[in-house]
Amino acid sequence: ELWLLPPSLPPLASAAPLLPAAMGNIDSCIPGEDSSPVTLERLEWAVRQMDSKEVLACLQAGIDVNTPIDRQGHTVMDLFQVEHQQMLKQCQTGRGRSKDATKIMMDVEEAAGDVLQILRSFGARQAGREACLRRST
Questions:
Q1: How many CA atoms, within 13 angstroms, populate the side-chain half-sphere of residue 34?
Q2: Rounded distance between C-alpha atoms, residue 98 and residue 75, angstroms
Q3: pTM of whole model > 0.85?
Q4: Which of 49, 52, 55, 124 could share a disulfide with 65, CB 3.0–4.6 Å?
Q5: 3 state SS of 69
Q6: Residues near 54 by Cβ (< 8 Å), separated by ≥ 6?
């Protein structure tokens, strides 16, 4: 069982009311205009959206990149791999002009590459082989 936020969750300030303080995650804040708490769930959301700015903000605020995100011990690197694979599948099945499909695929790859680079720079690791993460529908 994987506990995750819905993919439609908006970033930063509007996410705070959905993340109760009783969850026990880090209560640090990103400096600046937004003072909503930075949580592991927020990092998960940012990885799902391939939002490199939000991923970097969460990690710079002190979220441990290798903290398990579920009971099986998966990390955000496992989540990244599954989400990236899903995005590539969606690019393959998309309809439309070849030129448009290529641009979309290139944008997806650029966003994923940025997120991967940030995760790796913070020492992100995948969970062991016994923790096999599958995308929930």
A1: 15
A2: 35
A3: no
A4: 124
A5: coil
A6: 11, 12, 42, 45, 46
Mean pLDDT rounded to a whole number for the chain: 77
Band (32; pLDDT cuts 50, 70, 90): very low
Is the distance from CB of 17 to CB of 52 less than 8 angstroms?
no
Backbone angles phi, psi at 37, to 5 degrees: -65, 145
Going by C-alpha positions, the residue among 12, 86, 81, 5 that lies closest to residue 53 is 12
9: tokens are 């969750």
Distances (CA, A) of 28 to 74, 77, 101, 102, 133: 23, 22, 40, 40, 28
- Residue 134 has which token pair? 């599958």
DSSP H helices in 3-136: 40-49, 52-60, 76-93, 98-121
Six-digit token string for 26: 């880090």
Cβ atoms of residues 73 and 127 within 8 Å: yes
